[in-house]
Amino acid sequence: METPCINVCMLDDKSGLCVGCGRSGDEIAAWVDMSPAERRAIMAALPERLLQLERETAEGETAS
User: Can you give the pTM of this predicted structure?
Assistant: First the structure.
């Protein structure tokens, strides 16, 4: 089964997204029960989610 997990499993407190793969906790929990099409749709959105997480982290670091 294809997975975006890179074994950096930690959810961001603010967004609720995994900082390693960009999935939500609900998506991670449901991953094995999803259809291949559902998994592909989520995986297509992950690069943008991870970029957003990086931007928010960088903004938080410059603000403090």
Answer: 0.87
